[in-house]
Structures are given as structure tokens and as C-alpha cells.
Design brief:
343 residues; alpha/beta; Udp-n-acetylmuramoylalanyl-d-glutamate--2,6- Diaminopimelate Ligase, Chain: A, domain 1; UDP N-Acetylglucosamine Acyltransferase, domain 1; 3 domains; ten-stranded parallel sheet; 4 helices; 15% helix
Length: 343
């Protein structure tokens, strides 16, 4: 358990402390459950009415709520960002590996940087380069000539195929597979012929990849994930996809091959993006979006039908099947009215 003074939290967040600088906290807690020794935050103003009853040792708030706090307060520009920074400072998550396990299999020509940790039964193949401070969890496989930048961390059972490169300060969760074959086949009179995937995967700095997410290598060119991208659990990123700086993608999203996604996009969970399309910078797609065409302008986009009772859904589905017929009838009525107007 870590312990920090309120003065230290003020330094970490860059906020203005009102109260006892020597008081200490050991964990972050939600406002309604926080007790002494806890730090909490107010990011939604509608909950400001609860500040008077909050038992936390410290509450992080915006300037507008500072006078509502009855105890120690830390005035910050963005309480949610401050929460993220404080949570990092109080984080007690163990490292995926410490030291180099005797059971790790490491090629003699692998280049291992300073302060590298490699867990039990990990396999590091020939030509691999691990930067300083890299942590490789138990059971990981790193293929030939792969490169991992400084301070990149792999949790247990991550697979990094041959020739793949990861930048610095990346975090890869358990079960992720980076550099597997893209879906490439040619049909020769009913027989499928596999197309070798000759490209690779290039991942930038400060990228996070969730558990059991798969990123396929390119068919000819590389699949590219730029800096500061966050990919959640169980995503499928197909071959030759490009994802721009700062884009985030929650769980279950599927991106088909050769799609290019711009910078600072937010792709809602369980969305499906068609192949060979482009998404402009700053696009937000709400959950379960089905993107069949390119999006050329920044904005918020949605698709799909919200949940209905089964009875309502059946009625809606029946009407959808009749849209073409209804359209023809509507055009006929419009023409009839037009003819009457002309006469």
C-alpha cells in the first residue's frame, strides 16, 4: 500500500491545495464510498450536492465547486484527469516479471537492454531487440527480429510475431497477438490458395493494446498503429489497417483490411468498419456502428436500431422489408399530384 501526502498530490496534479498539506491518503474511492484516508473527485457537476456529506480526506474539484467542499480540497482544471494521475501514483499493480527467469528461452544473439525482466517460459527468438526497461511476462513469445522499445511491458502469454516492431512505453495485455497472418486467399476454381502475408506490424510509442486483441500483419505493406493509440480487449485489426495518433477503440470492434482511420477518432464498442475505406480525423462513432463507406468530415456518427421489445422489433423488421414497395407507391402518388397540378 502506498501513502501520499496531500502536498504530494498537489504536485502530481498541478492543483491548488486548500487544507492540511500533511494529511495522507492511500487509495482512490468513489465519492459515495470514500472514507478517511481516501481521495475522491467530482467530474459531473450534478453530484456537487453530495460534497457536504463526503467523508474523503481529499476531494478534487474544479474552481466552481471549491466553496462547496467542507474538508480538504484540491482545485484542478480537470478532476477526471487529476484522478487518472493520482491513481497512477497510488497504483500497486505488480510487475509482469522481475528479473530473468531460469526457464526463459533466449536466443544467444538477442539484444537485451538494461534492467530487462523476462518471465518464466517466455521465448525470445533470434534477432530480437529488447530496449531498456522492457518487461516480458510469463509464457510470452517474441518472434525473430522483433523489436520492443524502451519500457514496453507485455503481460503473460502475449505473442509478438517475427519482424514486428513496438515503440517505447507500450502496454500489451495478456493474450494479445500482434503480427498474425492477415486474411488473404485467392480462389483457383474452387480451391483456396493462401497468400503469404509479407508485411509486418509497426506500433508507435505509448500504445496500449487490450487482452486477446489481434492485429494482423500486412499483406505487402505494414499494418500501422501510430503513437498514443488505445485499443481495448478483443479487437480484430486486419491487415494493412492504419490507425492515426490518439485514436481510441473500445472492446469488440472489428476493422477490415486496408482501412485508414484518422487522428483522435473515437470508435464505439462492437463497431464494424468495412475494408478499404477512410475515416477522417476527429470522427466519433457511437457503439455498434456499422461503417460501410468512408467518412470525410469530423463529427459524431451512429447507426443501428435501438433495443425494442421483440414484438416491436418484428413490426419494424416487417416494415423495413416493405420500404421498396412503399417507395414505389409514394413516387406514384407524387407523380399523380404533379400531373393534377400541371393540369
Amino acid at each position: 500500500m502506498k501513502t501520499l501526502t496531500l502536498a504530494e498530490l498537489a504536485t502530481i496534479t498541478g492543483g491548488e491545495l486548500i487544507g492540511d498539506a500533511n494529511a495522507t491518503v492511500t487509495m482512490v474511492a468513489p465519492m459515495d464510498k470514500a472514507q478517511q484516508g481516501h481521495v475522491t473527485f467530482l467530474s459531473n457537476p450534478k453530484y456537487a450536492k453530495h460534497l457536504a456529506d463526503c467523508q474523503a480526506t481529499l476531494v478534487m474539484v474544479k474552481e466552481a465547486q471549491r466553496d462547496l467542499c467542507v474538508g480538504n480540497a484540491l482545485v484542478v482544471t480537470d478532476p477526471y484527469v487529476a484522478f487518472a494521475k493520482v491513481a497512477q501514483a497510488l497504483d500497486t499493480t505488480p510487475k509482469p516479471a522481475v528479473g530473468i527467469a531460469p526457464s526463459a528461452v533466449i536466443a544467444s544473439d538477442a539484444i537485451i537492454g538494461q534492467n530487462v525482466a523476462i518471465g518464466a517460459n517466455a521465448v525470445i527468438e533470434t534477432g530480437v531487440e529488447l530496449g531498456d526497461g522492457v518487461i516480458v511476462g510469463a509464457g510470452c513469445f517474441i518472434g525473430k527480429n522483433a523489436k520492443l522499445g524502451n519500457n514496453t511491458k507485455l503481460w503473460a502469454n502475449v505473442t509478438v510475431y517475427h519482424e514486428v516492431s513496438l515503440g517505447s512505453d507500450c502496454l500489451i495485455q495478456s493474450g494479445a497477438v500482434i503480427g498474425s497472418d492477415g486474411f488473404g486467399y485467392a480462389n483457383d476454381n474452387g480451391e483456396w490458395i493462401k497468400i503469404p502475408q509479407l508485411g509486418s506490424v509497426r506500433i508507435g510509442n505509448r500504445v496500449e493494446i487490450g487482452a486477446c486483441t489481434t492485429i494482423d500483419r500486412g499483406a505487402l505493406d505494414d499494418t500501422i498503429i501510430e503513437d498514443n493509440v488505445i485499443l481495448d480487449n478483443q479487437l480484430q485489426i486486419a491487415h494493412n489497417v492504419q490507425i492515426g495518433y490518439g485514436t481510441v477503440m473500445p472492446g469488440g470492434t472489428i476493422v477490415a483490411g486496408s482501412t485508414k482511420i484518422g487522428k483522435y477518432c473515437q470508435i464505439g464498442g462492437a463497431s464494424v468498419l468495412n475494408g478499404h475505406i477512410e475515416i477522417a480525423d476527429g470522427v466519433a462513432i457511437t457503439g455498434m456502428g456499422m461503417v460501410m463507406r468512408s467518412i470525410e468530415e469530423k463529427g459524431i456518427y451512429s447507426s443501428g436500431i435501438p433495443l425494442q421489445t421483440n414484438k416491436e422489433w418484428r413490426r419494424t423488421a416487417t416494415r423495413v422489408h416493405k420500404i421498396d414497395e412503399m417507395n414505389k407507391r409514394l413516387k406514384a402518388v407524387e407523380k399523380l399530384l404533379e400531373d393534377k397540378t400541371d393540369s
